[in-house]
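note to self — DONT lose this again. spent like an hour looking for the file last time. sequence + predicted structure for the chain T wanted, 382 res
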Amino acid sequence: MQVKTFTGATSQEVLAMVKAEMGPDAVILGNRTYRKNGVVCHEITAGLEREGQSYSSPPSAFGAPADVPSTPGGWNEWHREWMRIKEQLFALMKPAIQLDRLTPRQRVALEYLQREGVSDAVAVELYRRLLAEPGASVLECLGGIVPVKAFGPEQWSQRIQILAGPYGSGKTTTGLRFALYLRKQDMEARIAFINADCLRGNGRLVLRHWAELSNFAYLEAPDREAMKRAITATSAFDAVFIDTPGFSHGNDLATWLQEVGLEKQGAAEHITIAPFCEAIQIQEFLKRYKGPYPAAIVWTKLDEAISFGNIVNVAHNSGLPVSALSYGPELKESLVPATEPMVWRLIFKRQLPGPVPGMNAGAKTAGRATPGARRLGEGRIA
């Protein structure tokens, strides 16, 4: 595999460099943001499989091809051709976007969204909706693109809540924050945690420690038999949170649910994702972690991000609603069920929905809908 690191002023600029040099088949291996001489730099490491190599049959530890599903013949060429067609279609459509047909406020909002990393597909769809509904606000049209379904017993009545997401995305702490939120609403609620991610010592200790402190039942279920016993033991509880393991390439949540006997439990699922992940990486995460149950996205680590256009892109591509917004390192008062006003303030004003521990005390306070809200950057809302 050919591996190369690219650096630029914005993530969009770096992705364009990756695409121009390595093509659409390049795989994002890692990304980071850092400061150099006071300037923010974005770095992406990408890899490209050389001719003659294939991911369809990687060698095992003993040199023989591993038993994994093979990629259909000609897939890479077909995918490359489709990406070219898609780019050409958007190139043809862009000149047809006549911004002067929009009101000044609509035009400013659309241009702002594009600067924040909203994809061409979303921009074209939003433009089409604005023309179809003269006089409509950008937020009204965005409401049809970015669904919101706030976490809580009213909209998420399933007793079993599955937490899924890649390692480091805040999956375990999101489950604890959900449980603390439910306990705050009902002090008598019986809440249990089933930890199926038993191989990671740090996350395991944190979950067990906080479960005991908060008087939540805690069980471990590393295999099918243990999961069956845990589900039976928690059958009388009001809410059960299952912390799932992370999955590597080739594995997914739907398969894991079948392996541990959870495919018919009538559960709900929350996928934890950070907004600064690249689009190609988020697309892969959704393939791995979207199971058969009603699902939503919890956007985590919002205080570490500098823009939030990805929230719109992911909602448009996946159709999944936003259930909660999470920010800051603390477990308490660092997650809120999502509402449309919160999402719009986050996207257009970079305004977090609550206080962020450790932020500069002199930071400006913006908005009064949520006490203690902090603004990360400037922006205008339509």
